[in-house]
Amino acid sequence: MGLLVSFVKESPLPFPIKGAIRYENQALFHPKKYLLHMAKKIQGDGSFIFENTRFFDINEGKPNTVIVEGGQLKAKNIVIASNYPFGTRGAYFSRLFPKRSYALAAKLKGPVPRGMFITVEDPFNSIRHHTSKEEGDVIIIGGQNHRAGVGEDALEHYRKLQEYAFERFDIESILYRWSTHDSVSVDRVPYIGKLTSRSNNIFVATGFGGWGMTNATVSGKILSDLVLGKPNPWALLYSPSRMISAKAGQKFLLHNVQASISLLKGRFKKFPHLEVQSLSLGQAMIFELEGRKVGVFKDQQGKIHAVSTTCTHMGCTLNWNNAEESWDCPCHGSSFSCDGKLIHGPAAIDLEKIDVL
Ligand SMILES: Cc1cc2nc3c(=O)[nH]c(=O)nc-3n(C[C@H](O)[C@H](O)[C@H](O)COP(=O)(O)OP(=O)(O)OC[C@H]3O[C@@H](n4cnc5c(N)ncnc54)[C@H](O)[C@@H]3O)c2cc1C
Ligand code: FES
User: Fold this and answer.
1) Is the pTM above the cut of 0.85?
2) N or C: which end of the chain has fewer CB within 10 A?
3) DSSP secondary structure letters along 213-258
C-alpha cells in the first residue's frame, strides 16, 4: 500500500516561503491510498461498492430505492456524497456556491520545502511537497479559486498560478496541472445531516469548501451516529436545516441573484447562426440552430462535437471552459464534457448531442 499518511512535524524546513505560513503538527495524507484502504474495509458483510454506476434519482420509501444506470438499488439508509447534491430536493443549489480551484506539480532545481504551507494573501495559494517513485520530490501549488462556470478564460488561471510558481521557486519544469470543483456553503460550514428536515433515512454530506480531508471525517462521525440513532454533539452545528446568520443570508441572496442573472442573460443573449467552418482547431462557440443554442467544439484533429448548451439542471446557458474543454454552468456549476457527458452535478443527466453536419 505504501505510505498512507505522514506526519510533517519532524520534517526540517530548509527555507521559509515568502508570504506563507506553516502550521505545526499536521498530517499529510495521500488521498487515493487513504480511500482505497477504506474501500477495502467496506466491501463484504452486506456492504458493496459499485463503481462506474451513476445514480439519477432516489425514491423515498421503506426501503429507499436509488435509481441507477441500468437498474435499482434498495437501502434502508442513504447518504448522498456526490459533492453537489443532484436535482432540486433540499434546494442545495440555492445555498451552495460552486468553486473551481487549480493546482500544478513542478520539479524544482533545488530541494523541495517539506511540509504544507498556505499564503496569507488574497487569493491564497497552498503549497506542499510530494515524493513519488516516478518523479522523486515535487512541489504541488494550488490556488486561483473562483466561482465555477462563469465563462472566464480558464487558461488565464493556470497562467497566473504558473507565474506565482516561477516568482517564488526555482522551477525546473512543470509536470502536471489540473482543476476541479468543490462546493462552499453560504456560512462556510458544511451541510452534514438529514437531506431535508422531513427525510428520515436520507442523509447528505456536502459543502466542504476545499477542506475535504477533515470535513469528510467529521461527516463520517456525525452520519454514522445519525444512522444508528445515537446523539452526536456536532450534529446541530452542521445540520443542513440550521439557522444562518444575517451575513450568510446576504451571501445566499447574492448567489441566487447571480444565478438568476446568468439564467436571464443566457436566455436572451443572441448567438450567431450556425457556421461550423468558421471555427479554428481547438475553438468552441455557441450558435443558434432552429431556435436552439448549440455548443460546437472543433478539436485539434478537426472533429466536430456539438451539444445543446441548455443545462439539464434548471436550463441556464452553459459557458465553454477552454482549459478543461468542458461546458460549465454559470448558475450552479454543473459541468459536461465536449460530448455532453455529465462530469459534475447538480445536473443528473447528460446534454443532448446535436447533429450539425
Ligand atoms: C485543486 C484542489 C485541491 C484541493 N486540496 C485539498 C487539500 O489539500 N486538502 C483537503 O482537505 N481538501 C482539498 N480539496 C478539497 C477536496 O478535494 C474536496 O473538499 C472533497 O473532494 C469534496 O468531497 P466530496 O465527497 O464532497 O466530493 P468529491 O470528492 O467530488 O466526490 C463526489 C463523488 O461522487 C461522484 N458522483 C457525483 N455525482 C454522481 C452520480 N450522479 N452518481 C454516482 N456518482 C456520482 C463523483 O464522481 C465523485 O467521485 C481540494 C480541492 C481542489 C479542487
Ligand atoms: S447547474 Fe443549475 S442550471 Fe446548470
Assistant:
1) yes
2) C
3) HHHHHHHHHHHHHHHTT---TTHHHH-TT----HHHHHHHHHHHHH
